[in-house]
Amino acid sequence: xxxxxxxxxxxxxxxxxxxxxxxxxxxxxxxxxxxxxxxxxxxxxxxxxxxxxxxxxxxxxxxxxxxxxxxxxxxxxxxxxxxxxxxxxxxxxxxxxxxxxxxxxxxxxxxxxxxxxxxxxxxxxxxxxx
Length: 130
Known about the structure:
- The protein has helices spanning 22-32, 90-100, and strands spanning 14-19, 36-37, 48-54, 57-63, 82-87, 104-106, 113-117, 123-128.
- By secondary structure, it is α/β, with parallel strands linked by helices.
- It has one domain: Roll (2,3-Dihydroxybiphenyl 1,2-Dioxygenase, domain 1), CATH 3.10.180.10.
- 15% of the residues are buried.
């Protein structure tokens, strides 16, 4: 094991994404992606939602001003900052994205992965889990 891999960082616990309209974002993450709302989000001074991804991992949505609003994003999400989420059925995910009219692109690496953007242009990568 390398010195880096045995370092103090053990896991990614959550990723936080900025959204401009929490209701719209929740519709996407719950209805399109099928994520489960985490019920115990503490009271914070801004609107938000947390989603349980299993194994102690979460996705946090924060309705806050986006310092990058208006910036030009690369066409392919794999060339932009992104988070990667495992999926067990890529065909089912693609069907859900197609039904919702969400554009996605295949990974350029040849892996069983696709990239899409949420309503706020946050990039999401979905990798088929083995």
